[in-house]
Design goal:
Blueprint (H helix, E strand, L loop, with lengths): L1 E3 L31 E3 L14 E4 L2 E5 L12 E6 L10 E2 L12 E4 L3 E6 L7 E6 L2 E9 L13 E5 L2 E6 L12 E7 L4 E7 L13 E5 L2 E6 L6 E7 L4 E7 L13 E5 L2 E6 L11 E7 L4 E7 L13 E5 L2 E6 L3 E2 L2 E2 L2 E5 L8 E3 L14 E4 L2 E6 L2 H4 L2 E6 L11 H6 L26 E2 L1 H9 L2 E2 L13 E2 L1 H9 L2 E2 L2
Antiparallel strand pairs: 1-19, 2-31, 3-4, 4-5, 5-6, 7-8, 8-9, 9-10, 11-12, 12-13, 13-14, 15-16, 16-17, 17-18, 19-20, 20-21, 21-22, 23-24, 24-27, 25-26, 27-28, 29-30, 30-31, 32-35, 33-34
C-alpha cells in the first residue's frame, strides 16, 4: 500500500484521447495498450476521477475529489470490483461532506473498510470511512481535535485491518509550524476512536511529516519531504502502539528533492518517491528502493525515468508488490504537452518493462498522478483524461496466455506477438479455426470454411491466413488444428 501528497496542477486539466503503441518519447521501452480502463459511471467533467487510487486484490477504490454531491466539490469515491475496467461503478458521496471538502484527495482500502481523505474539510481536515461490504451503509467521520487549524488531516492514508493511519502534514505540534503529524484510529467493533498521535520530536518546521504514508507487515512508513532534503520514518507496531525504528534519508545529495513525497511498502521492501530530484533532469524525479532490516534500510536500486523530461515529477506516485514497482510521473512532457506517464519495473530491473502513456498529446491528462499495483493489476490514475472527467488505466501483468513470462500487452507493444482483433487475447492463443465457437475444430467448421471458398472481404473469419481468399492454405490451417481447442 502507498500514499502521496496532492499534485499541485490538478485543476489544470484537459482531455487526452488516442491509441497506445510504440514509444515516441525517444526511448525503447514498450508502451502497451492498457488491458482496461476504469471510467466511473456517473462522473462528469471536473470530477478528476483517478487523482487517487488504491487496491486490495482485484477491488479498486478510485478517488473522485471533484464530485458535486451532496454539494459542489464535496467529493466521493467509487469502488470497482473486478479490477480490469468498468463503467458501472457509481460515485459514493458522503452525506456529511460540504462544499469544497474534496473527499477522495487520498483513498485507502483494508479488508473491511474503504477510506477517503478530506484534508480541506472543516477546521483541520478529516477522513470518511465506509464498510467494504456495505459501501452504501453507515458512514463514519474521523478527526483529530488536537490538530492545528488547516492541518490538512487526510492528505495521506494507510490502513490495515481494524486501524487506519492519517497524515496531517500542515499540523504544528508543540507550536512547530507545519512540522506535521499522524493520527492512528482504531475500530472496537462499534465505532472508531483515536488511539495514538505520532509527532516526532526534533523535526523541523516545514518538514510536512505525514505527507505520505504506507503500511505493510507490521511496518508504518511516514514521509516528511520537507525535512532537510526529505526523510521517511519507519515505525514498528508493538504493544501498546508504534515505536520509531529508524529514519531513512536520501542515499546521495543529488537524490534529494522532496524525498518522501510518496512511499510504498511491501513486506521488507520500501520505495520512496523523489519527484523533484534533478539527477536525470531538472525536477525530472526519481524513485529509490530499499530493503528494510531490523536496524536500518539498505539501498537496493535507484529508479530514474527512462526518457527523462524536465518537470516530469517521476516519483509523484509509487506502488510496490513483490518485484513489481510502479512509478507515476504526471508532469511527463510528450509531443509538447505535459500529459504524464507511469513506468513499470519488474524483478529488480534497472530499466522499465513498460511505460503507460496517453496515445496523443492533446491535453493535460496527468497520467501517473497516483498509482497502485495489486494482484498483478497495475492501476494508473489519469484525472485529467476525458476533459478532466478522469479515469484509471489498467495493465494486467498476469495476462500471459503464451506463458513466455511477459504480459501479453507488453508482447504486442514490442512486436513480439499480435492481437489483430484487439480483443486482449494474442492471436497465437486463439483457436481461429473453430468457426462455430463450440470449442472443437471438426466437420461443422469445415463446412463453414468450404461454403466461403474463394475471394472474401477483409477480416472474414474463414480467411484463416488473412490472404483475402479462402483456399487450400486455410484448409491446411484448419486440418492442423483439428480436434479440441486448447
Amino acid at each position: 500500500m502507498g500514499a502521496r501528497c496532492a499534485f499541485a496542477c490538478i485543476a489544470l486539466v484537459a482531455s487526452v484521447r488516442g491509441v497506445f503503441g510504440a514509444s515516441s518519447t525517444g526511448g525503447t521501452v514498450a508502451e502497451p495498450r492498457p488491458d482496461g480502463r476504469i471510467v466511473i459511471a456517473d462522473s462528469v467533467v471536473g470530477d478528476v476521477a483517478g487523482a487517487s487510487v488504491a487496491a486490495l486484490g482485484a477491488t479498486v477504490v478510485v478517488g473522485v475529489r471533484g464530485h458535486d454531491a451532496p454539494a459542489p466539490n464535496a467529493g466521493g469515491v467509487a469502488v470497482v470490483r473486478g479490477g480490469r475496467g468498468s463503467t458501472d461503478a457509481p460515485v459514493i458521496g458522503f452525506a456529511g461532506a460540504s462544499e469544497g471538502d474534496e473527499a477522495g484527495i487520498a483513498v485507502a482500502i483494508s479488508p473491511g473498510w474503504v477510506f477517503a481523505g478530506a484534508p480541506r474539510r472543516g477546521r483541520a481536515g478529516a477522513i470518511f470511512a465506509v464498510r467494504l461490504d456495505d459501501v452504501r451503509g453507515p458512514q463514519f467521520q474521523l478527526t483529530d481535535p488536537a490538530c492545528a487549524p488547516a492541518a490538512a488531516c487526510g492528505t495521506a492514508i494507510a490502513a490495515d485491518g481494524d486501524w487506519v493511519a492519517v497524515g496531517a502534514p500542515n499540523d504544528s505540534p508543540a507550536g512547530v509550524a507545519m512540522a506535521g503529524s499522524v493520527c492512528v484510529h482504531g475500530w472496537d467493533g462499534t465505532g472508531w476512536s483515536l488511539q495514538e498521535r505520532i509527532a516526532p520530536s526534533g523535526i523541523p518546521a516545514g518538514a510536512r511529516f505525514g505527507s505520505s504514508i504506507a503500511a505493510s507487515a507490521g511496518w508504518l512508513a511516514v514521509g516528511a519531504p520537507g525535512d532537510a532534503g526529505g526523510s521517511v520514518r519507519l515505525y514498528a507496531r508493538g504493544d501498546p502502539g508504534w515505536t520509531l525504528a529508524y529514519v531513512v534519508r536520501p542515499p546521495a545529495a543529488d537524490l534529494a528533492g522532496w524525498f518522501g513525497s510518496s512511499v510504498a511498502i511491501s513486506g521488507s521492501r520500501l520505495v520512496v518517491g523523489v519527484p523533484y530530484c534533478d539527477r536525470a533532469a531538472a525536477n525530472a524525479g526519481a524513485a529509490i528502493e530499499f530493503e528494510l532490516g531490523p536496524h536500518g534500510a539498505s539501498l537496493v536500486r535507484v529508479l530514474l525515468p527512462e526518457a527523462p523530461s524536465e518537470g516530469a515529477n517521476f516519483g509523484h506516485g509509487v506502488a510496490l508488490e513483490g518485484g513489481s514497482v510502479v512509478v507515476g510521473a504526471p508532469g511527463t512532457l510528450r509531443l509538447g504537452q505535459r500529459v504524464g506517464s507511469a513506468e513499470v519495473f519488474l524483478d529488480g530491473g534497472a530499466l522499465p518493462a513498460a511505460r503507460i502513456v496517453p496515445g496523443e498529446a492533446d491535453g493535460l491528462a496527468l497520467v501517473g498522478t497516483d498509482v497502485a499495483v495489486s494482484a498483478g493489476l497495475v492501476l494508473v490514475g489519469a484525472p485529467g483524461a476525458e476533459g478532466s472527467r478522469g479515469q484509471v488505466l489498467v495493465l494486467d501483468l498476469t495476462r500471459d496466455c503464451n506463458a513466455n513470462g511477459s504480459a501479453d500487452a507488453i508482447d504486442v507493444a514490442l512486436g513480439q506477438s499480435t492481437d489483430s482483433d484487439a480483443d486482449g487475447t494474442l492471436d497465437e492463443c486463439q483457436c481461429s479455426a473453430d468457426l462455430s465457437d463450440d470449442g472443437v475444430v471438426d466437420g461443422a467448421d469445415l463446412g463453414l470454411l468450404l461454403a466461403r471458398w474463394g475471394a472474401v472481404p477483409p477480416g472474414s473469419s474463414e480467411d484463416l491466413d488473412d490472404s483475402g481468399f479462402v483456399d487450400g492454405a486455410d484448409l491446411g490451417v484448419m486440418l492442423a488444428a483439428w480436434g479440441g481447442c486448447s
